[in-house]
Amino acid sequence: MRKPSKRFVYFTIRFILVHVITYIFIGVVFMNLQNYASAFITIEGFSDFRSLDSTIVRLAPLFQIFRGAFFAFILYPFYNKIIKSDYAWVKLFFLIWGFSLIGSVAPIPGSIEGIIYTEMSLAEHLIGIPEVTAQIFVFSWFFVKWENRTERDYS
Length: 155
Prior knowledge:
By secondary structure, the chain is an all-alpha fold. The protein has one domain (about 5-150). It is built from nine helices and no strands. It has helices spanning about 5-35, 35-40, 55-60, 60-75, 80, 90-100, 110-115, 120-125, 130-150. The longest helix is centred in the first third of the chain and has 28 residues, at about 5-35. Keywords: Membrane, Transmembrane, Transmembrane helix.
């Protein structure tokens, strides 16, 4: 079995770090700005969501390590087409935003499937979109800036 390249390993590590940090930071900001605790209690569409006090929800940042690695593995083959191209952070933003939120195959709030298959109002669907958009925006910008500053010889 072939050993992964150093470039791939460092790319993945940077991707995971930036993803987890922006996930936590933006999540905390929006949790307080939009009073998610109240929304989860009062909006019927969130009745199947776990309580914010549950252990697994508190461990969500740890699960983001795997999500970040998953995205890094998927995106790495397109490194030169996305990261090393003009408007790289914009391309990365729209790619991740589109697949994560709008193009989700699960009926999550804010997704096309969610709008079709759930009984939530449009306003309820819009609650999480600013947070997801801000997190992916900050992630994409910061990650591409960091990646472009790390021009190394990985041999």
